[in-house]
Amino acid sequence: MSLLEVIVPSGTNERLPLGASDVPVKPFLDDAFKATPLDFRIGFRMCLWVVMLSPLFVLRRFKLAVHLTREERLALLGRFAASNVYLLREMPVMFKVVLGFAYCRVPEVQRALGIEPLHAKRDFITDLRKPVPAPEKSGPSFEIPSVASIKAAVADPIQGVA
């Protein structure tokens, strides 16, 4: 995933030495495609095709995006970001978000960011399918005042405050 490597390169930060090429993206995409709706899968694949074939039209280069140099990939992403066409401007964003999820899923990356992973091999896609338990009440709560109490406070502001 050379485009993600441009966004998250290896070894540029002591705290976060892993780059995008150091994390397993394919297993994440396999899990995600099993759990996501068909329209998302189609949209993501279209986005991937447009980004991969875009050097032909954007940079006038007869190469796929994965075969570009780092500078050419940066230029390609910059051209997408500067596009006047909303759909073209947002396609790489979708690509980056999904691949960013794959990057941040890795326990070593989470630890480097100061997040302790719950389970080193947790399958969050399966967890999304499980029902979410209702949160326990803790801390202060806010109750919505009734219409009658609001009218009383407006009619007699001094007594309504008490």
Key terms for this structure?
single chain, 162 residues, mainly alpha, 9 helices
Topology:
Layout: H1 2-7, H2 25-35, H3 38-59, H4 70-81, H5 86-104, H6 107-112, H7 124-129, H8 147-155, H9 157-161
Folded structure, characterized:
With 162 residues, the chain is mostly helical. It has one domain (2-129). It is built from nine helices and no strands. It has helices at residues 2-7, 25-35, 38-59, 70-81, 86-104, 107-112, 124-129, 147-155, 157-161. α3 (38-59) packs across α4 (70-81) and α3 (38-59) packs across α5 (86-104). The longest helix has 22 residues, at 38-59. The mean pLDDT is 77.
Distance between the termini: 64 Å
Strand content: under 5%
Summarize model confidence as the mean pLDDT.
Answer: 77
Radius of gyration: 24 Å
Q: How many DSSP E strands?
A: 0
Number of helices: 9
Structural class: mainly alpha
**Contiguous uncertain segments of 5+ residues:** none
Report the order of strands and helices. Answer: HHHHHHHHH
Q: How many domain modules?
A: 1
The gist of it:
The protein is mainly α. The chain contains 9 helices and no strands.
